[in-house]
Specification:
It is elongated, with a radius of gyration of 24 Å. The chain is an alpha+beta fold. Strand 9 and strand 10 form a beta hairpin. It has 2 domains: about 230 residues, P-loop containing nucleotide triphosphate hydrolases (Rossmann fold), CATH 3.40.50; about 120 residues, Beta Barrel (OB fold (Dihydrolipoamide Acetyltransferase, E2P)), CATH 2.40.50. It has 10 helices and 20 strands. Helix 3 packs across helix 4. Strands 6-7-8-3-9-10 form a 6-stranded mixed sheet, sandwiched between helices. A 5-stranded antiparallel sheet has the order 13-12-11-14-20. Helix content is about 25%, strand content about 35%.
Amino acid sequence: MSQEPIDAASHLVVRQASKRYGATTVLDRVDLAIRRGELVTLLGPSGCGKTTLLRLIAGLALPDAGTVAIAGRDVTRVPPHRRNVGVVFQNYALFPHLSVAGNVAFGLTVRRRPKADIARAVDKALALVHLDHLAARPISALSGGQQQRVALARALAVEPDVLLFDEALSALDRKLREEMQGEMRRILRDINATAIFVTHDQDEALTMSDRVAVMNGGRIEQLAEPRLIYQRPASLFTLNFVGLSTRISGTVVACDGGIVQVDTKVGRLAATGRFLAGSQVVVATRPEHLRPAAGATGNAVSGRVRAVVFQGSRSLVEVGAGGETLLAELPGQEAALLAPDAEIRLAWPVSETFAFPAPEMAA
């Protein structure tokens, strides 16, 4: 598992954080460092620990071990209202009896800020989310997207050291969610906000983040830029969870210079990796690297077309070979020429092929 070294200059630092509920370990010695102005997404399946980690940072839960520091200050035992952290929840947690402006002002009112300061902060926050013209409107009269903006404005109004988003866009329909991803990304960049998103939506994580922390079993599997998470996954779990892939099991028969030769049901394949001969591995690549080829160098496998799934300008082609399934992403016109059960030979570069320990080895 890939946990990066902690940078002393980081704005938010979590060190060796652990949390248990009864006999279940929800977080297991997690390290996380986030720079000022950075947007990091915690990505993973339900139960992986991402929401618990967010709650520890917010002060809504206490770690059994480890520390949390924000802006150089240890806040591990500091209550939530004294951490200067803004939180946007999945259900927005807006007050229906208050107006838009009243909701945005709530955190400032609790902090007993002067009325003039509150008014200025509310105006500024609503202008950032383009809702200043709706300040007097009741919450019940807003659309889902507008309510999401109000929740964001309320979090921004207190000028937090860190903004936390817990599945904040999941209640929106797909089109609106995609629009809000771009809008929120713009707003957070404009104000140089330090933010953490929690999501199980890989597209959302790859679209919005400066870096993504893929979580599994209470630990961070990989923390890296979205492009690296997708193109150079550090573990089989990350490969499986982020994006589609072709995965073929086999046995290593040779290793030379960081390239392993692997015997599989579809023939011998080469992949980047370092394993001893006899190791059980999974050879993997992404669908966009597979291309029809009659006599290509690199890895090549012959099989039969099982299905062609239309995806707009491109199609996903499923090919069966030797009991294994290969996925190829092809241009729509090229894929349209493939008939069901047609023979096809697919080839892809060794440089885009990776070997991972088989699941029983990884355990």
